[in-house]
Each structure stands twice: as C-alpha cells, then as structure tokens.
Amino acid sequence: MEEKMMSVHPIVTIPRHHDVSFHANGRIDLSAHVTGVLDLHPGDVINIAESDSLPIEYYLYVWRRAADLIGRHSGTCRPAKGKGRYLRAFCKRLTDHMLRLCPGYTRLNFRVGSPTFIDHLGITLPLITLPLHHLSSISNQSHLSNTHHSHKTS
Fold first, then answer.
1. Nearest CA-CA partner of 48 in 69, 37, 32, 63
2. Is pLDDT above 70 for 127?
3. CA-to-CA distance for 61 and 48, rounded, in angstroms?
4. Other C-beta atoms lying within 10 Å of the C-beta of residue 118
5. What integer pLDDT is reported at residue 18 of this predicted model?
6. How far apart are CA 102 and CA 82, in angstroms?
7. Would you call the peptide bond into 55 cis, given omega within 30 degrees of 0 as the criterion?
8. Which residue in 125, 131, 59, 75 sits closest to 102, CA to CA?
9. pLDDT of residue 131
10. How far, in Å, CA of 39 to CA of 33, rounded?
C-alpha cells in the first residue's frame, strides 16, 4: 500500500447526534432538539404516525399535553438527565413497531427533519429513515448471500 501525504479536513466539524432512539426494552430517548421543537415537557405523551402511501414516512408528534391528562399513559415523557432538556418515554408497543423495520436490531437511532404541520396532529417531526432502509437492504442482501453460500455444493 502506497502512503500519500495530503492535507485533509472534516466536512462537518461538529457531528450531529441522533434525535430519537428506540430501544428493545421500550425506552425512547428524545434529544433536546426534539423536545424544544415540539415544546415537550415532562408529563406530555408522544406518539408516531405513519403515512398511508409508499414509501412509508414516520412522524413524531405530541399526542396529549400533561395538563390534559388524567392517569398513566404509555409514551409519557420524563426527564432523562438532571437539568438537561433530554426526555425519555417508555412504550413497548411503539418501540416494537419501529424495531420491526430492521429485524435483529435492539436499538434504532433516527435524526429528524424539519417540523411539519399535519392536520389533526399539529406540529410533527419526520423521522429520517433513508439510511435505515439502506441498512435494512444491506442486511437482507448479506443474509441472502450467506444463505446462498451455505447451501453451495462443491
């Protein structure tokens, strides 16, 4: 291998981390960016809406505000860290649904797009799933490839 001396610099100097994480145990982590854009507060309940058309798009939104609720609800936001704006929710049905997008994974991380207003939902944040679909197709291809090779006769 030939060594080259060249000057390189990063394109993005401050990497942006994921905005929403879904964990197999039902935990949903929400970044300060998400909580700020959706004006989320402890006690608010989140949900995900999905489009009816292909490709399916997923939108994070506030299902109910804490002031309008009585009792316990899945997807209720709680503080995740001391004074930060990070919030955490638990909803096993929601995380299981999202994890089905990439079978075999125990956590999926998403970035969100620009806020979008959708009738009857209000302000939503689209989950950016393009890399997820790419990852899923790579995973499926390598699985098929491995299966094919394992059945190969000499």
1. 63
2. yes
3. 6
4. 13
5. 86
6. 32
7. yes
8. 131
9. 52
10. 10
Q: In terms of residues, how long is the chain?
A: 154
Compute the mean pLDDT over every residue in the chain, rounded to the nearest whole number.
Answer: 80
CA 72 – CA 86 distance, rounded (Å) = 20
Question: Cα(88)–Cα(23) distance, rounded to whole angstroms?
Answer: 11
Residue bearing the bigger pLDDT, 136 or 100: 100
Alpha-carbon distance of 144 to 154, in angstroms, equals: 19
Q: How far apart are the first and last CA of the chain?
A: 34
pLDDT at 139 > cutoff 70: no
Which residue type sits at 118?
I
Long-range CB contact pairs, 13-16, < 8 A, 24+: 16/111
**Distance in angstroms (rounded) separating the CA atoms of residues 75 and 92:** 9
Task: Name the region of 43 (left: φ>0; alpha: ψ -120 to 50; beta: rest).
Answer: left
pLDDT for 149 beyond 70: no
